[in-house]
Fold these 2 entries.
Entry 1:
Amino acid sequence: MADYKNEFGVFAERPKVEKKFYDGNKIIVGLVIFFAIVTLPFWKNVGKVIPAPQPKLDTPAIAKLTEKKCVMPTDWMRANHMQLLIDWREEVVRSQAQSGPSDFRVFESPDGRKFLASLSNTCMNCHSNKTQFCDQCHNYVAVTPTCWGCHLDKELKVAQVEAK
Amino acid sequence: MGIDRRQFIRIAGISTLLGLGGKGAWELLFPGQLEAAFLAEPVALKAKRWAMVVDMTKMDDATAKLCIQACNRVHNVPDLANPINPKDKVPPEDKVRWEVKWIWTDHFHSAFPGAEAEFLPERVKALNFLLLCNHCDNPPCVRVCPTKATFRRDDGIVMMDMHRCIGCRYCMAGCPFSARSFNWRDPRPFIKEVYQDFPTREIGVVEKCNFCAERLAKGQMPACVEASRGTLLFGDLSEPRSPVREALKTYFAIRRKPYLGTNPQVYYIV
């Protein structure tokens, strides 16, 4: 073996270390246990079919509607309701800063129906069953919208009114 | 067998179309169905420059209390001394630090520093001035906000977009009128009667008076003005015949700290 060299000169031979896998058994057993624990959630659910959520539409407000239509076509809403809510929010809270002193709070849908652009006062009036309608899918896909830290879901209030 | 070139292009084209997203595909397949629009509510009150006049010659403590209560009720302002669960009650020294206030009262020497004379009329000394956000023409809170969560609308209202507030509290440092409050705690346990038509706030955002922008949009006057028994006047400063202009034409009015150059738009008739 060549001498161990650097810019200061020649040094003694590089020490020879025997290449050996120490404590192999313990390490392998430890790794197996580690991976078993980390992948436990997958093993628990393997082969199981988690049923897709079925958001419920059976609120009294929806039952009263003659034409059961949301503000936009249902398929579109299913894919884009978050964008719609963000658009509503920008339009109601901020847009007047650009477009002059007026409040654009009324949303006109493509088929000409008019709605107040409001999560708590329009969406939640019909979909008053937040746990059945919103939370089910959001939990299923593991998203946590931050709406409800400030905005009021009317579930409790509607339940009280129905009880009366 | 694999697919031939024709099939490959067809599949790629269709999947691109679908992959371009819901909206693009919808527009191609069902043109015109998604043309939505935003309209102003026909009843909305509009102005070029909203302003308020507080008539301290008529205002008394009972009326001021009514105004404060009306505001706190319709804006879900938490009352730290009066929580839903008595266990959450905040000790008085913390209440001063954590208090959320949109509209409040204070004495002349605190409200108008720099304007006090050595000898003031006893009446003025004893007055509890009703204070609120001044909706300045040159608002320092807007200038310092790093996310533009606070902005000035064209009708003069200094608005907050709670969705954008990151709770840095620069605006609280910038505001010379202490009109802004930080939510040190979750306000929900301190709101006994929740007003369903207005959201609450969250822990970690700043809030302040918004001149009842949400009520103006519905054609209603601000809550404090409605409760004020005529001691608060609200109107368009650019309209010569509005109640605020009429009042300012007749009486001499002062403003809080005008020498700072923020041009506050709440006037006090003393």
Entry 2:
Amino acid sequence: MKGQDVRIKDVGKNEGRLVDLDVGDIPKLPPPYDNWQDKPYSEVSEEKRSRMDTSLDGIIGLRLPRPRSEAEKSELVAKFLRGVDKLFSREDNWTFLQPFLLAMENCVKCNTCADACPIFEESGRAEIYRPLFRAELLRRIAQRQRSPVAKALGKLTGADIDVTWEMVARLGESAYRCTLCRRCAQHCPMAIDNGMVSREIRKIFSQEMGISPPELHEDGTIKQLTVGSSTGVNQHALMDILEFAEEDIEDRIGMKIKIPLDKAGADILIMHNAGEFLSWPENLEAFAILFELAGLSWTLSTDLVGYDSVNYGLFYDDIQYTRVTLAHAQIAKKLGVKKVVMGECGHAHKAFMAVGDRMWLEESNIPRESALTLMEDLVCNEKIMVDPSRNDFPVTLHDPCNIVRSMGIVMPQRRVLEKICPQFREMEPHGVDNYCCGGGSGFAIMQSNNFPDWRMRISGRKKFAQIINAFEGKMDPSINKYVCAPCSNCKGQIRDLLTYYDAWNRHHILYGGLVELVVNAMVDVREGFLEWEFH
Amino acid sequence: MLAIQILTYVCIFLFLAFIVGRVVKYVKTPLHVRWELYPVAHEKGRAVYGGSIFEELEWWTKPRKLDRIGELAEMLREIVFLKGVFKHNRPLWYFSFPFHMGLYLLVGWLGILFLAALLFVLGIDLSGQFGVVLRYLVALSGYAGLGLTALGAFGLMARRIGNRDIRRYSAPVEYINLAFILATVITALVVHLSYDHWFQAPAAYIVSLIKFSSFDVGSQLPAGMLVELVLGSLLLAYIPMTRMAHFVSKYFLYHDVRWSDEPNPRGSKIESQIMGNFGLLMNWQASHIQSGKSWAEVGTSDMPKADDSGGDKAKEVQA
């Protein structure tokens, strides 16, 4: 079926794949990519299709196992419906009961959310990606399940649907076609948050049915809680990485810097997304250089969980979120630091400072702040001296949704860039109106099967269009260009986008964090911290 | 007429009961985690671009600067002018704005009628200039309210039928809601344009409701007037049972969720509420959760060992 033709009543049908995605439906990119030809979506193997559900759109994100019998199907549907009930329970869902209840009971279906959603738009307006689609499906299931009046009125209220395994499976998979960027919520005149509804659906699957993407659960929160980091870096490996970082700092700028570890009573405990350690060590190194040269009292933690700020529970599971955030709080308390500073990771900002504001309690309630505000203080109050001519190349800024739309940290990063980057230019739209990178809510680390195909062609396409628009007139490959993305997951997604669209080779567009630009401009640091190499 | 009066009393009671019930339901939900969305209207000097106190170095040491006037202004822009719809969905606004403005005027119309009736019952003379002003206000708000509501409801209905995107997600009840409103206001418009130009009958009806007296206007009362009173009463009872009561919910959606950025310093009331929530016993059944234990216990526990639940079978398949 074409994506534009699907109706809610089709979701429960047992007729193979609901939507056949076609790259021909995707809107064109702006020049010089207006003739870009997308490769078709790759099909997963027959063997995988026999094991995992692909009945939504042929893309595998959730890796939903196919039931082997009718009895198993019925059991899973029953579990799902129990999970629906629990979302309405104060005991099971105090964390989101009020916003969820309000979202379920008050949507007037005006569809204002649709035009706010880059995924819906870039898919060629496929109905299954419409923000209202999955929320309305859950709403009708919940009505049927919980309201005898609505159930009795049946078709009149829309509650005349049969909850089949196919419907449950497609709903679960569709919850992983939303990046939880909350742009739809921002546009909703009623302030209803369909992104949050997607997350609530993910919670049913994880918390009741035990089904979640392995990248988020087994290789995410479980690995973090048991090994120390979702990257798999244990404490031993961490020491090797930090030793390498110290050597690399010396190689880059000729300075010996000792990274302080587990320094009790330090002013600052900085927490990085451990993805930086493996993929972008220059980010961790830049922070070390900046903090040391600014004379700050700081430390890293080597405790289990303490060296990785990620909290993938924020994307799919309140219990896992709670476990990770309480572990983080205990580590900050144990070290007795004055404050925790969040490195360049958007969802960690939100997990620690916004959502975590009502999780870190009593003595564990150590203040948390953003590295972006700290950098603004150091740069704009001239606690470090910078030479902006070192960054005299076009720079644009990607706003991580969690830092901007969900937390209101908008200007500090801009004031820093205006001070250190003479050719800084904004993307349009930007700030709280920004578009998601397309890798939000865990998508950036979901690298298996054909999910990356979808991420590159649909969820990240709007961001790529914004990037090339921002560099209009500067696309000549002889001009180095830099996308500043102060978020680890966003960086991962932008790296993949620039690779997919071959933007480094064709146009010399590099990406990285903010602190790298700051250190590159510091007059006390040897020139050339920033290396124009794509990785 | 007594039957209609009884119907109106019952409908007023149902209206109040359902509205209070809805408010109580939302008020009684436990304090949730922070989930605000920027711009937050009361952020002084920052609401214009969506900033927050998190932009301050060591924000917890700084006083919160709240702009309650700005928040009120934003609320007024949203409530009166439907700013969100105007900004993000202009084609809808062309009908939604007159519809809502019409309803506000009708609420005002009812309020003025009630005031006039109350003054009359209290024996205050309304034959002077004040009475004339009231009379004109009633006529103005009544006709403008009925006209705009009818226009808006008609437009919204046409849009819901004509726009494929909206039609696909509309259940029959959504058409019924609009049709009910349309029928009520059209009936009232026809009645008052034909017979009771100055809305004297509704005024007399309200007097009878306040005085618990009979509503006796003899045989001159047209059938259309009876239909108007019945439809108006039933509509009053029906609205809070449906999503049309979003005027109540919107307060919570904005103040308890979208703009809810109250920080939680040590020893705060928020802290004690959350401590209470941590004592709630959860019943989630996935194998990584110790069902039946409190949030505090589960949140600080080691991960349970995997068992042979469906979820774990799922993990084998996912490999």
